[in-house]
Amino acid sequence: MQKLLIVLGLVLLAAGLLWPWLRRFPFGRLPGDIHVVREGFSFNFPIVTCLIISIVVSIVLWFFRR
To answer: What top-level branch of life does the organism fall under (predicted)?
Structure first.
């Protein structure tokens, strides 16, 4: 558990430091992501982005468990 928390902390630190470059990627604005804008209301549900991130994380974890 300690190793997992350390690795997650390092990943979050790296993402924070690289954020100016990471936000240029189209995550959250992919085709299939739901974005509704009405007067006084905005709703964003990045379903395709969530699916892609889930698949990538699953593959990475599968490789580490082998």
So the answer is: Bacteria
Return d(Cα 50, Cα 44) in angstroms, integer: 12
Strands 41-45 and 34-38: antiparallel
How big is the CA angle at 32 (ends 31 and 37), to the nearest 5 degrees? Answer: 95
pLDDT in tens, 40-57: 999 999 999 899 989 998
Say which DSSP state 30 is in.
Answer: S
| CA 22 to chain CA centroid, nearest Å | 10
As given in the structure block, the two tokens for residue 9 are: 């902390």
- Length of the chain measured in residues: 66
CA gap 55, 59 in Å, rounded: 6
